[in-house]
Structure formats: C-alpha cells, structure tokens
Amino acid sequence: MKVILKQNVPSLGKAGDLIKVHDGYARNYLIPKGLATEADEKNIKTFEHEKRNILRKAEKEHKSAEDLALVLANVTLAFSRKVGDQDKIFGSVTTKDIEESLKEKGYSIDRKMIILDDHIKSLGEFKVKIKLTAGVETELKVIVTGESRV
Predict the structure, then answer these.
(1) What is the mean pLDDT of each run of 10 residues along the chain (150 residues)?
(2) How far apart are the C-alpha atoms of 14 and 46, rounded to whole Å?
(3) In the 8-state DSSP scheme, what is residue 126?
C-alpha cells in the first residue's frame, strides 16, 4: 500500500514522502496513529499543498532546536550526592535527574532526548549529549560533587 507520511518517521522517511509499506503496517499503525494517510489521487493533490506547510513548520522547528542547542551548550548542571570510598557516589545521576534539573531551569527536554552511555556513578565533570531533533545535537556540562564521606 502506498501512503503519504504526515510526520517524520525514523525508519521510513520524512513528512510528505510517498512510500510503499505493507498493508497491515499502514492500516494498523501508521494511519491510526496519524503518521500517514492512504495515497489516492485526492489525497496526493491535497497533500501537495499541505506539504509546503509541513516543510515550513519542520524548518521552523529545526531553527528553534538549533537556537535551543546553542543555549543548552552553555548550561551547567550541578548535582550533590553522598560519597563513599574511592569517590564513588551512592546511587547515580540518571537521565531523569538531568531532565528534572533542566525543567527547574525552565527547559522542556524529554529524558529520551538525553543520551547517557551509562548512569553517572562517580564524582567529577561530565559532558552529556542531548539529541533535540534529527541532525541537531548539543552537549551540556554535568558536575557531580560530594556531600560528605560515609
């Protein structure tokens, strides 16, 4: 079945693309979720006009993501954790902690956008990557300090 994508779908394509997918995938997932519409003559003509609006909107979102990336590059988050032997902290700093700290500072970043190879489990300064949109990534600084030795 041929469908027209209404939104960017990572494994398929960008908004406005005309693609061929399995019937079940289109009927059971893409169309009900509003990610695509069936590609018939009427929809193709209608979507040509809408495609320009979608591209404009995507360009605007990309620009705002780039602006946010520049701002986040200068953000430093500080966490204080209890410390044991060899400067290892009890618990860890997770994506959820980073998300909450960013929200306190007024930035709305979903924790799925925050890329950590592993939880931060020691004292020090770390660079954390944030993927805002496709092609727009930034890094922010996370500093973990110790409260007291236990």
Answers:
(1) 88 87 95 92 82 82 92 94 83 93 93 90 92 89 81
(2) 17
(3) E
Please tell me the predicted confidence (pLDDT) of residue 148: 67
Q: Which amino acid, 132?
A: L
| Contact between 47 and 53 (Cβ < 8 Å) | no
User: For residues 2 and 22, what is the distance between their CA atoms, to the nearest angstrom?
Assistant: 9
Dig out the tokens for 135 from the structure.
Answer: 């092609």
The answer to whether 50 touches 113, Cβ cutoff 8 Å, is no
Q: What's the pTM?
A: 0.67
CA–CA distance, 49 with 113 (Å, rounded to integer):
31
**73-149: in CATH 3.10.430.100:** yes
The CATH homologous superfamily to which domain 2-61 belongs is Ribosomal protein L9, N-terminal domain (3.40.5.10)
